[in-house]
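Hi R.,

Here are the chain sequences for the assembly we discussed:
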Amino acid sequence: MMTDPTALSCPAPAAETERVLLGHGSGGRLMAELLHDVIAAELGADRVTEDAAVVDTGTAEVVTSTDSFVVTPRFFPGGDIGSLAVHGTVNDLAMRGARPVALTLAYIIEEGLPLDELRAVTASAARAAGLVGVPIVTGDTKVVPRGAADGLYVTTAGIGVRRLGAAPSAARGRPGDIVLLSGPIALHGTAILSARESLGFEAEIASDSRPLHALVTAMLDAGGPDVHTLRDPTRGGLASALNELAETSSVGVDIAEDAVPVPRPAAAACELLGLDPLHVANEGCLVAFVAPAAADAVLRAMRARPEGTEARAIGTLTDEHPGRVHMRTLLGGVRVVDMLVGEQLPRIC
Amino acid sequence: MMTDPTALSCPAPAAETERVLLGHGSGGRLMAELLHDVIAAELGADRVTEDAAVVDTGTAEVVTSTDSFVVTPRFFPGGDIGSLAVHGTVNDLAMRGARPVALTLAYIIEEGLPLDELRAVTASAARAAGLVGVPIVTGDTKVVPRGAADGLYVTTAGIGVRRLGAAPSAARGRPGDIVLLSGPIALHGTAILSARESLGFEAEIASDSRPLHALVTAMLDAGGPDVHTLRDPTRGGLASALNELAETSSVGVDIAEDAVPVPRPAAAACELLGLDPLHVANEGCLVAFVAPAAADAVLRAMRARPEGTEARAIGTLTDEHPGRVHMRTLLGGVRVVDMLVGEQLPRIC
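And here is the predicted structure of the full complex:
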């Protein structure tokens, strides 16, 4: 496939050239537009609605997912880029009902990175994978000259095997479903920002980065096919995740502000920074849409797991206002919860 | 998994701190050491000897592989970073005897990248995947601020299903095996360098970037389990690939210089730049170790494919000098062919 190099290698940047903005990486509205208008359009895909894909290998239902990690700082309270990269991909597989069976690990390293840091990150990734019980089976290492990256970027991909009869999907939410949240929100984003900007919350806020595969297993044991939808609200936060799911399932989401747990230090950090906790990234909680008949059993199963002790119902799905998320505020009003627009926290994961 | 952030987030760079060198990304000796001493050591792996891993999903033999691509320029004669990323991963799967069934695609984008470039790269990746017949099923997009990357980095991962009875492996070379090479070498590296440095060879040299899965299918149809070892000699070139295989299989490799085809313009570029063609990266040829009884049939099958018209036998394996590669020179002498040491051509793929 020959590409005319003169046509593309050095495109003259006309004044009106559309360019990638930091906000295109936000996990919010701009990113959704980029994915739809540029990436999915060129791939010939209809839409990009899931974080992991089911692959028919002919004999097994294999699920695959990938994520790049560019977080800064690379070491933060509650984790580091290595464990985060493992947790992120394990969680994307889990959200499709898959047991992780293998991970790959690819590094883009800036020349000059201390080898001790590379060792520490690799050891952390290995430890995180070991705790999940999933092997890192292959990888790649590229080094770019000083100034062509910022230290270290990590891309993981994962393979999982789908549990028989489990088919959670962004498109399976139904009116009447109960919206369950596994734990407090806004910890990862505020931990990163606090570590980056020395805001003084470093001792109080740790990232929630952790694997959620065992929690999902417990939920599927309890609810089976009644667990309609699972999503980990990472970049763009709970608000963006709920909006994506509402749109994909063509349902409305009603949640109650007082049901959404925001730890006090995270709330204080958000207030200081002018952030909405609903837009702040998480790396260790999930939101689920569960048929009402199974919701109690699933919630009990979640609470029995250490990563789900604070699980709770935060709302319901409705056939009113499809594609939109409404929140009953503490004062009794109702506000529309929108996706994050633009970039709130660059390099949060 | 809590990491003490004070211990690791800002390691004071002592004067004697070991740091990543550009040469650590070369595909040669330094990279082999980094993989062995740092990455494999921390992952608890014994060695890193294959570019793709076989995963037992319980029901199917699934193969997986990943590669990051940081090539500059992103568009070059014969390809671009998008098609290269697809070919690279398809070829890594093929080298383990696997038919590719799914690819993932992760972008790390520098703020300010023209969207037209992102479109062109994505379209090229989609076209390349379409020609292979493998879907890109999921992906990820991260954006980093200006200066934290150089335009666009692409990481692909792939899933393949292993052909029944096929088990080519870096460890299966046996004394007596014939060494087959599918086509001319040194094209990709010289094409990139020529495009980068405007050496004047741009019209004559195009990268050999292309998928090799169909060639491998033809070889396995002809030779079955007698096809012991397959490897695409990318970074580090044919010399590094043969050295890695010699070491992993504990065999010696004897090749003849006059049997290794180096196209005239590529040879001229190498002479100008002081490069050994055996150390220059390829992206569209493979080297195979095949049992002598099957070598003729496999070679005929290769030549019947467009990507193998120039295939030929370039040597044999021996139980003498295990782990080493010897070359009979044009002048009748024998020289040791070593792995590439250090970095010859940064950001070649």
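Chain B touches chain A through 112 residues (CB under 8 Å). The first strand of chain B starts at residue 53 and ends at 56.

Let me know if anything looks off.

Best,
T.
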